[in-house]
Amino acid sequence: MIKTIFWEDDAVVMIDQKLLPLEERYVTCRDYREVIAAINDLTIRGAPAIGVAAALGTALGALNRACPSCEDLDESFHQICEEFSRTRPTARNLFWAIERMKRCFGENTGNVDETKAALVAEACLIAEEDIAINRRIGLQGRNLIKDGDRILTHCNAGALATAGYGTALGVIRAAHEEGKKIHVFVDETRPILQGARLTAWELKKEDIPATLITDSMAGFLMHRGKVDKVIVGADRIAGNGDVANKIGTYSLAVLAKENGIPFYVAAPLSTVDLSINGGNEIPIEERKDEEVSYFCNTPITVPGMGVFNPAFDVTPHRYVTAIITEAGVAEQPYEESIAKLFRN
Known about the structure:
Elements: E1 5-7, E2 12-15, E3 26-29, H1 32-40, H2 47-63, H3 70-85, H4 92-107, H5 112-141, E4 150-153, H6 168-177, E5 183-187, H7 194-205, E6 210-213, H8 218-223, E7 229-232, E8 236-238, E9 243-246, H9 249-258, E10 263-266, E11 272-273, H10 290-293, E12 294-295, E13 298-299, E14 312-315, E15 322-325, E16 328-330, H11 334-343
Parallel strand pairs: 4-5, 4-7, 5-6, 7-10, 8-11, 10-15
Antiparallel strand pairs: 1-2, 2-3, 8-9, 9-14, 12-13, 15-16
Helix pairs in contact: 1-2, 2-3, 2-4, 2-5, 3-4, 4-5, 5-6
């Protein structure tokens, strides 16, 4: 199994996703600021993986603070949490993990060394749970895949986007492990090419048949009857089922609806934000111009050209066939079905 991020020798270790697929290299972060930098520059990416990185990073920051008491550590720890919260605004798992680490701190305010140990243990537990949750998502979703299905996926929602196994790719992986003959269409996912670089790399390692396409080919394939299902991940899901995911997801959902193709979203419940009612309340991160105007450090447009680079878009729930979680599969009406999953 691909190990995306883990704790080792009082440090956070992660695979450098910027170098894939050409080079597999792990980086070791011994200071929490290095973890923050890794989140910002996409060394680590994918909402669940970002959540794990935040948990491990805040634990690392607390561990390295020389504080004689928990009272002294309190202000420092919460400042570290605040720094992590400013990294990727769309990813709900980031804030979910920070909230959980804060609760852990509040429940362990005795001996400072014991508090630090509790934070490290909680962060490692979050990472372990993420893998187990993803496997359950795969089991919940594999029954939606038929033998012979041709599946289109967007961006990377595999092991690399999580602590391991994956969400959307986890469903595909579980169906493949079950022995179903499937074929995956991987769209490149401009501008960072997470599909071409990361999803294709994962599928190749798993020997799952796949074909790479450009983003603009998806509609043509659907119209020609080449796609049976679309399965994507999510960075945040509103209480009504609206889904924020990598830019381009909304276009695929509309195309799928037009062509009568099921459109599935696979994500853990930690991605669901019940505090917001709809997708218009989800903050959408805008990233630097160079991700669009440059490729491999080479300019691909005229100097001074204006650039708009939102990292995510929002797919209204009316385009979503079902949301696959570790607790079950939610269907319309989502306000009721999602709330029921939280009660299970």
